[in-house]
Design a protein that fits this description.
There is one protein chain. This protein is α/β, with parallel strands linked by helices. It has one domain: Rossmann fold. It is built from five helices and six strands, in the order βαββααββαβα. A six-stranded mixed sheet has the order 2-3-1-4-5-6, sandwiched between helices. β5, α4 and β6 form a beta-alpha-beta unit. The mean pLDDT is about 90.
């Protein structure tokens, strides 16, 4: 009996970018603020990482090590963020497929959302999904993608 291993994703982004809220939304849990202090795994599927691991250069190695357990890199950026933490080509650090998610799209205008999409694509995201946990928009496309990715 060869049971297929469930594919995992890792969420990487700044503090307060919406990574944990994404986990709660995808898991159909009540949305409530929770500061992620350590790496957490939701349903043996989503690896949620603290934003400080990206924000502090001395901790970035923890992302590289943890990403070994993931099959898909997910770069998360909130729509109203000024600038980006992801340099061009950042996803090449992991040598795995990469997508981007723009969160909190209900808080930004189209220009800011397009800027975030551009930043995520420059960082190496092959596809970018624009979501809002508040309105629920964008999740159908994201979940469809993740389901198809898991079937590969």
């Amino acid at each position: 009996m060869d049971e297929k291993k469930k594919k995992r994703i890792i969420l990487i982004g700044r503090s307060m970018s919406g990574k944990t809220t994404l986990c709660q939304y995808m898991d159909n849990k009540e949305l409530k603020y929770h500061k992620t202090q350590t790496i957490q795994i939701f349903n043996d599927f989503v690896i949620d990482t603290p934003g400080e691991y990206l924000e502090r250069g001395s901790l970035r190695g923890a992302l590289t090590v943890t990403a070994v357990e993931a099959d898909l890199i997910v770069l998360v950026q909130e729509a109203d963020e000024e600038g980006t933490m992801f340099p061009p080509g950042y996803s090449s650090t992991f040598a795995k497929p990469c997508i981007g998610i723009v969160t909190k799209s209900d808080l930004a205008d189209e220009r800011k959302i397009e800027y975030c999409e551009k930043c995520l694509k420059m960082a190496g995201a092959k596809e970018v999904f624009v979501t809002s946990s508040y309105t629920g928009s964008g999740f159908e496309e994201l979940m469809d993608f993740l389901e198809k990715f898991s079937e590969k």
